[in-house]
Amino acid sequence: MHVPDGFIDAPVSLAAGVAAAGAVAVSLRGARRELDERAAPLAGLVAAFIFAVQMLNFPVAAGTSGHLLGGALAAILVGPYTGVLCVSVVLLMQGVLFADGGLTALGVNVMNMAVVTVVVAYAVFRGLLKLLPDTRRSVTVAAFAGALLSVPGAAFTFTLLYALGGTTDVPLGKVFTAMVGVHVLIGIGEAVITAATVGAVLAVRPDLVHGARGLAAPLKLRVGGELVDAPASAPAALPATARSTKPVWVTGLITALVLAGFVSFYASTSPDGLEKVAADKGIDQNVKEHASADSPLADYSVKDVDDARLSGGLAGVIGVGATVAVGTGIFWTVRRRRAQDLTAASTASTAV
After folding, report:
1. Which residue, among 95, 142, 111, has the nearest Cα to 26 in the 3D structure?
2. Which ranges of the chain would DSSP assign to H, the alpha helix?
3. What is the spatial distance between Cα 38 and Cα 28, in angstroms, rounded to a whole number?
4. Structural domain contains residue 221
5. What is the DSSP string of 28-80?
6. Which of 180, 178, 157, 186 is nearest to 8 (CA)?
7. How many CB atoms lie within 10 A of CB 284?
8. In this structure, is the dihedral angle defined by the CA atoms of residues 220, 223, 227 and 230, taken in order, positive or negative?
């Protein structure tokens, strides 16, 4: 759903940019509370993983594909404020390095794909957790539902922005019906990917899932070949904060590199939902050439590398590396601000 330059006029694009900048500023402040010793090392990895999975377009209808937006996944794994930042970093890397998503439309894309998806998904996720039993399965079910609804939510937001500043004269009803219809189908793929990823992390390190930190996790003992709840007098497990995140980080990074560097070659080449709707309905009549069209990584291929498989794979690996580096730098900076805030608060309370 990367909106190119020319779909939305300058005034609305500028307004969306201002709104996106405000949302990012709020998220930077809110992320200080989320980026603790568990989340901080993983936030950059989450951004890189989303970048990698976004390269894996999957077919959803005849001649149409979809890809992960990632807002739901990021919000549930590392928190909603940090989630907005994760997807925003991905969109920035894609726009600047790969000519994917217009630069003047960056604010539009941040609002659609980062802010709206996170807000819708996390609201649905938290709402369902209040109704469902306090179990890991409930977290996975709520993640599925939140991700499913977040995608048509983003499609609705695009339609609203198009109604305010669309550069072509296409009936709004046709745009709305086509956008929401195809993105409901894409939302199913989003939900499956999100639930599977959240479930995988829950299985090995539930303490690293921001949305699951309220779950009770009793110590298990193996008795007679079966796992049973340990008695209350059993020794406590190692505190979650003392457990290393390095194995998860390394595994996640390798997975992202394999997905972007190898599996992406087999992704669907059909246009995604927005591209298909734009071509069918004539929304793309005034599309403009991307400012980074001459980038050596434009269109997710390395310039002057003739072999398509190698070119795309190298571009994917470079993208994952750039995203994890930029994301980690941003999140560690925010993490240091959190530490400074806690130190200042502690000093003030001691002085009193």
Report:
1. 111
2. 10-34, 40-54, 71-78, 80-98, 106-109, 117-131, 136-165, 172-204, 246-261, 273-281, 308-351
3. 17
4. no
5. HHHHHHH--TTTHHHHHHHHHHHHHHHT--EEEETTEEE----HHHHHHHH-H
6. 157
7. 17
8. negative
What is the reported pTM? Answer: 0.90
CB-based contacts of 181, cutoff 8 Å, min separation 6: none
**Structural domain count, the chain:** 1
The residue segments making up the domain with residue 207 are 10-214+244-347
Question: Regarding beta strands 58-61 and 220-223, do their DSSP bridges make them parallel or antiparallel, or are they unpaired?
Answer: unpaired
CATH code of the domain in which 268 resides: 1.10.1760.20
Please report, for residues 97, 170, 175, 253, 341, the alpha-carbon distance to residue 325 in angstroms, rounded to integers and kept in the order given: 14, 41, 38, 12, 24
What tens-digit pLDDT sequence spans the chain (352 residues)?
899 999 999 999 999 999 999 999 999 999 999 998 878 889 999 999 999 999 999 999 889 999 999 999 999 999 999 999 999 999 999 999 999 999 999 999 999 999 999 999 999 999 999 999 999 999 999 999 999 999 999 999 999 999 999 999 999 999 999 999 999 999 999 999 999 999 999 999 999 999 998 775 544 555 666 655 555 444 444 455 457 888 999 999 999 999 999 999 999 999 999 999 999 999 999 999 999 999 999 999 999 999 999 999 999 999 999 999 999 999 999 988 766 665 655 565 555 5
Examine residue 266 and state whether it is found in any structural domain, yes or no.
yes
Q: Is residue 228 part of a domain?
A: no
- 262/278 Cα distance (integer angstroms): 29
Task: Please state, in angstroms and rounded to a whole number, the distance separating the CA atoms of residues 350 and 330.
Answer: 31
Does residue 139 contact residue 129 with C-beta atoms inside 8 Å? yes
* Any domain includes 136: yes
Q: How far apart are CA 249 and CA 245, in angstroms?
A: 6
